[in-house]
Specification:
Layout lengths: L1 H12 L1 H20 L6 H23 L4 H5 L2 H13 L11 H10 L10 H12 L1 H26 L9 H13 L14 H12 L4 H13 L7 H52 L4
Length: 285
């Protein structure tokens, strides 16, 4: 058994084996895209062969493991094993069920195996995983301000319900929609509800039509549907855009950059430690 384990460990450490698996992952990813256009018996056969190669790789890495605990505590091993097992579930047993769509979607996630083809990509993933806690608190901080500004938006910018207006009001409202329609025209009142107001502010954060919001509200104020001054309308949207686009998003970027520096330093120290151990084991090198 030790001999087999040693052979498997030597195999996964070979550069050609790593390149071969990366090539198979690339082929698999391309074929998944091709299958969105057409499915032929040849493509299906290749996908079955690729699944067999992935299964062989998982078995080899399991045999070459240091111990069972170390294998199953590796997120990459769990990820690969889950994708392989899902690929073996026959679609026929879920015929006519929505479950089959879920299985197909999960199989598409095999494309994500490309993430393990480079140490640099793995480093980025480690940075993002370590940043989750900071990003969570940043998200809460962002949501507080989003919620606050959304309530303000609904309170002061919500247009009246067309059905509740009198004849003169309906005429003015129709004229307003003609000169200052919602963007896009099929969209509802951007500050009509709390949920819509939150989405509007998020859209403004991306830079999408946030100036149109200001111009439309100024025009609505001229028609008497919004009861705050144009200065307030302008100040509200400028303050939100500066706060969200420049300050809140920079907190997220700062958290990621900080963790990137931390992980790079940890990686450097780990390489130095391994180098020292190697020199101690082989003092003649």
């Amino acid at each position: 058994m030790q001999q087999v384990k040693g052979l498997c460990r030597n195999l996964i450490e070979k550069r050609w084996f790593e390149i071969a698996i990366i090539s198979v992952i690339l082929i698999n990813s391309v074929l998944i895209g091709v299958e969105t256009y057409t499915i032929t018996p040849g493509i299906t056969l290749i996908q079955h062969i690729i699944l067999g190669i992935f299964t062989f790789e998982i078995i080899v890495r399991f045999i070459a493991r240091k111990d069972i605990k170390s294998f199953f505590t590796s997120g990459w091993n769990i990820f690969d094993l889950s994708l392989v097992l899902i690929s073996y579930i026959p679609e026929s047993i879920f015929e006519g069920s929505s479950t089959i769509m879920v299985i197909r979607i999960l199989r598409i996630f095999r494309v994500l195996r490309l993430l393990r083809t480079s140490d640099e990509i793995k480093l980025i993933i480690d940075v993002l995983s370590k940043s989750f806690s900071a990003l969570f608190y940043n998200a809460i901080f962002f949501f507080i301000f989003l919620y606050l500004f959304s309530i303000i938006g609904v309170s002061v910018f919500r247009l009246p319900d067309y059905e509740r207006l009198d004849a003169a009001g309906k005429e003015k409202y129709t004229e307003l929609m003609a000169v200052a329609p919602n963007s896009p025209e099929c969209s509802p009142d951007p500050y009509g509800t709390l949920a819509e107001s939150m989405f509007t502010l998020f859209r403004a954060l991306t830079g999408e039509d946030w100036t149109d919001l200001r111009y439309n509200l100024v025009k609505a104020q001229e028609y008497g549907f919004v009861h705050v001054s144009p200065i307030f309308i302008t100040s509200f949207h400028i303050i939100w855009f500066i706060l969200a686009a420049f300050l809140l998003l920079n907190l997220v970027v700062g958290a990621i950059v900080n963790n990137y520096q931390v992980i790079m330093e940890e990686s450097r120290k780990e390489k130095e430690r391994l180098k020292m151990l190697k020199e101690q084991e082989n003092p003649n090198i």
